[in-house]
Design a protein that fits this description.
Number of domains: 1
Order of helices and strands: HEHEEHEEEHEHE
Structural class: alpha+beta
Number of helices: 5
Strand content: 15-25%
Largest sheet: 4 strands, mixed
Radius of gyration: 18 Å
Length: about 140
C-alpha cells in the first residue's frame, strides 16, 4: 500500500507506548490534597485520573505529621509525585519544591540536592525506596 507507514514505524510504536503509559497513569491522583486536609478526614482519600478513590495510609500520614514542621502541612500536596521520563532510563524527578523540602526534612533526600530548571532528579531506586517507606503517599507518574 502506498502512502501508509509500515507497521514497525517508530510513530506507531510511540503511539502504542503512550496509550499503555496512560493506562498505567489512570491510578495517579488528579485532585491532590494538602497534608492538613487529609489529616482532617476520617478516611483520607483523593480522586484518581480514572475517577476512583485513592485511599491514603493513615499510618504514613501520621508519620508525616509527626516528623514535618507544621508550616508544611498546608503547602505539601499529596501524594508526592515522581515523574519518569522515557528518555532518562535510570532517574526520575520531582517538580514540587514542598515535596523536596518534606523529603529532605524526613532525611530521605540530601539537603545538598537542589531544584534545577524546576526539577530535582534522583535515581529510580531512591524513588522506589521512598514510595515503599511511605505507602500511598508517593506515586510514580509514567511519562
Amino acid at each position: 500500500m502506498q502512502g501508509r507507514s509500515p507497521i514497525d514505524d517508530d510513530s506507531v510504536l510511540m503511539r502504542w507506548m503512550r496509550t499503555e503509559m496512560n493506562k498505567l497513569n489512570d491510578g495517579i491522583v488528579s485532585e491532590r490534597k494538602s497534608l492538613a486536609q487529609l489529616l482532617l478526614e476520617e478516611r483520607p482519600k483523593a480522586k484518581t485520573k480514572a475517577g476512583k478513590d485513592h485511599f491514603f495510609d493513615v499510618v504514613a500520614l501520621r508519620n508525616l505529621s509527626e516528623n514535618l514542621p507544621k508550616n508544611l502541612y498546608d503547602r505539601l500536596k499529596l501524594p508526592i509525585l515522581f515523574f519518569f521520563d522515557s528518555q532518562v532510563l535510570d532517574s526520575c524527578y520531582l517538580n514540587d519544591i514542598y515535596a523536596l523540602e518534606a523529603l529532605q526534612t524526613l532525611g530521605e533526600i540530601s539537603h545538598l540536592r537542589k531544584m534545577q530548571q524546576g526539577r530535582m532528579w534522583v535515581g529510580r531506586s531512591i524513588a522506589y525506596s521512598i514510595m515503599k517507606k511511605y505507602p500511598t503517599v508517593v506515586q510514580i507518574v509514567m511519562g
